[in-house]
UniProtKB/TrEMBL annotation:
Gene Ontology MF: a single term: structural constituent of cuticle
Gene: Polr2a-L20
PROSITE patterns referenced in this protein's UniProt entry, alphabetically: CHIT_BIND_RR_2
Residues annotated as signal peptide: 1-18
GO CC field: DNA-directed RNA polymerase complex; extracellular matrix; extracellular space
Keyword Iron: no
Region (Disordered): 215-237
InterPro entries assigned to the protein according to its UniProt record, in alphabetical order: Insect_cuticle, Insect_Cuticle_Struc_Prot
Protein name: DNA-directed RNA polymerase II subunit RPB1-like 20
Length: 237
């Protein structure tokens, strides 16, 4: 009986050891780290204790040595009351008069309308045409007034030399004017004019054209003459 139990036990052990997933265990284990030999350091200092307290007040508030002043007088008591009324409202001495008339009756009726009659005029006919001339055309038969004039200028300082003359017998005007040109020639224009032939002019030139330097003549002024200053003698005593 004991031998049989041993054999069954051996078979079971062999079966258990023969499992493929039964890996061998190592023969050693990892060392367990020892617990730390120290904890967080304790603070070496705390908050500093104040070296002094709040300062004691060096003075007390002074106690007032006086109270509010007592009033030196009392309010006076009025010696009189409001006066009693000596009269009542006056009674009216008259009554309102009653009107002795009513509104007046109208003495007229509605006026008849006084319209003006319709205008009895027609629009005026135009009364305009070509206006007649208010003046007569000029007549060349009127004889003019005879006249004549002439003038001339010759200034050597400025170089001006020109003149003009003209006369009329009342019908025909004849004249001539001349002017000295910058090229030293003199231009002469002779003309006639009337109401029939109009203005007819003939122009001619005298002299040769040249361009000389302009000559300016200095003006001549009279020489001033001075008289000696008068000599006065000493007044007689």
């Amino acid at each position: 009986m004991g031998l049989l139990k041993m054999m069954v036990t051996a078979v079971i052990v062999g079966v258990v050891r023969g499992r493929p997933d039964d890996a061998p265990h190592p023969g050693y284990s990892y060392p367990v780290p020892p617990p730390p030999a120290y904890g967080p350091p304790a603070p070496a200092y705390g908050p500093p204790a104040p070296a002094y307290g709040p300062p004691a007040p060096a003075y007390d508030h002074p106690t007032p040595a006086y109270g509010p002043p007592a009033p030196a007088y009392a309010h006076p008591t009025p010696a009189y009351g409001p006066p009693a009324p000596a009269y009542g409202p006056p009674a009216p001495a008259y009554a309102h008069p009653t009107p002795a008339y009513g509104p007046p009756a109208p003495a007229y009726g509605s006026p008849a309308p006084a319209y003006a009659p319709e205008p009895a005029y027609a629009p005026p006919a135009p009364a305009y045409g070509t206006p007649a001339p208010a003046y007569a055309p000029p007549s060349h038969d009127n004889k003019g007034m005879p006249y004549d004039f002439a003038y001339g200028v010759k200034d050597d300082y400025t170089g001006n030399n020109y003149g003009h003359n003209e006369n009329s017998d009342g019908n025909t005007v004849t004249g001539e004017y001349s002017v000295l040109l910058p090229d030293s020639r003199t231009q002469i224009v002779t003309y006639t004019a009337d109401h029939y032939k109009g203005y007819i002019a003939e122009v001619r030139y005298e002299g040769e054209a040249r361009y000389d330097e302009p000559q300016h003549y200095a003006p001549k002024y009279p020489v001033p003459s001075y008289k000696p200053a008068p000599v006065y003698g000493s007044p007689s005593a």
